[in-house]
Amino acid sequence: MTVAQSYLRKIDTDNQTQDFKLAVDEKLNQVEKKTNELLSYYEASNQQSHQQWEAHKKLMDGRFKDNDKVIQKYNQSLNLMTKGITSMFFVVAIIALVAFICGPVGELFGVSNWYAWINEEVKTQESAWRYLLLLLYSVPYIIFAFIIWGILKAFDSLK
């Protein structure tokens, strides 16, 4: 009986080993199948995310280009407006200078009397130096030029 029992034990052990191998193989195949499914799902999801990212990137690049065009037009408009306002300032300043020299303010400061004195000196003097007095006519304009220059320097320092 020992031989038969030993033979039966061997068969039982072999069957258990085979059953264990089959069970492990089956589980490993299931794990491998689920891993492959999960991997394919993540690859598809990653590809879809990449496509969406590319579409978003193209959209944002287009908007950046449009935004750059708008900013460029805005800067051009701002430059033209700044030049226009500066030109208007100079026109107003020249009109103010003429009003200062020829108007009642000029009378208050004696500019017209000063011009009359220069004119009288040029007419009555006999030397060549009298023509240098004609340069005094430009003194108010030189003062005005320095005022404008100072304003422009202050304007540049604000930038």
Written description of the protein model:
With 159 residues, the chain is mostly helical. It folds into 2 domains: 1-89; 103-159, no CATH class. Helices cover 89% and strands 0% of the residues. It contains 4 helices and no strands. Helix 1 packs antiparallel against helix 4. The radius of gyration is 50 Å and the shape is rod-shaped. The protein starts with a helix and ends with a helix. The relative contact order is 0.04. The model has no long low-confidence stretch (mean pLDDT 81).
Radius of gyration: 50 Å
Largest sheet features: none
List the total number of helices.
4
Helix content: over 70%
What global shape is seen? rod-shaped
Structural class comes to mainly alpha
What brief labels describe this structure?
159 residues
Helix/strand layout:
Layout (H helix, E strand, L loop, with lengths): L1 H101 L1 H6 L1 H14 L14 H20 L1
Helix pairs in contact: 1-4
Give a brief description:
The chain crosses the membrane at residues 88-111, 131-152. The protein is mainly α and 159 residues long.
